[in-house]
Specification:
Shape: elongated
CATH architecture of the largest domain: 3-Layer(aba) Sandwich
Number of domains: 2
Low-confidence stretches: none
Largest sheet: 8 strands, mixed
Number of strands: 14
Helix content: 25-40%
Mean pLDDT: 97
Amino acid sequence: MDKIFSEANALTDVLIPIFHHLHRFPELSFKEFETTRFIREELKHLDLDFLDLGMETGVAALLKGKHSNKLAALRADMDAVPVTEDEGHAVKSSVSGVAHLCGHDFHMTSLLGAAMLLKQRQSLLKGDVLFIFQPAEEITRGAQAMLDHGLWTKLPKPVDGLFALHASPHFPVGTVLSSRGYASASKTNFRIRLQGTTGHSGSPHEYRDVISAANLIMNHLQQVVSRDNNPMSPLVLAVHTIHAGDNDFFVTDSLEMTGTIRAFDESLQRRTEQRVDEIVRHIAKLQGVTASVDMLPEVPSQLNHEGLFEAANRACKRLFSPDKILDRPPAFLGAEDFAVFGQDVPSFFYWLGTNNEVNRSELHHQPGFVVDTHAIPLGVSLLTLSVLELLEE
């Protein structure tokens, strides 16, 4: 195991209490006020240069190396999800109905640890390092907000490479997914509104039924994935909410449904958006109701930059055995607004195993999600080595 890992492991007495603190005090998107204050206090000990973005949440700080040839960057997200975690967790959220059930507490801890190790090497660094603690990833708005507040314009030079990682309960601790290709999916949310007419239950022929129309729409949308799409091209098309009517047992004349489309392939994403619109409008016409479809683009897919793959691969080889380094697209279509940064700068995204084979974690956003703390030194090391490998090139 690499020397960096030994140094990261030696920091666990410091980092695990930080991880537990962040877990106990989760905050929702754009409300990470105390988290921001806590992160800034931890970084002040490292004497970094803070960038003033004029934002209430989020932190960006710069470590200046002795030889400022390049600029490497690392990013972690900060927000929690509005879900209540399992009562049986050893360390629990103190905020009712809010918890870190996606690993962002782990991401922040890993980035703080990497900042500590890189600070120790400041006089040897062949470039500068930017540390980004990003708010509002769960609503996929935080990355764009930081860019809108001038993140890139406040830097001394362009970013040569940006790295981040994500906790993955799909893999055990000691495994990393380092993709030569897609690392997260694009996401477009949609809102469908149907307008019919009210009437009497005993005279179904005298009103236009939005419930019946919605049922047909749902059935046809399900067939987009199973029949329209090539099964070798991953695609998610899901309706998540349906709202209709306020008075039980009375005919309603309006209905709204919302959902999401996910794909790695951006062209498939656009085709599916068009197909949803076509299905809704045709069925609405057939059923005699009116319809509107609003497509709400959220984030693009994350395509790991080919020019960063070798540095990432070397970093992985210094930490993991060859059979624990996976090079393939992720097995699920999670979307990440880290990809928004990647539209401007070369970027690379890892999925790091955080599961325990004995006390198994549930999946992201589920009450039983938990990160094995043995993954912390690996997270710290992977981020640190990614920077060092890039700056050494």
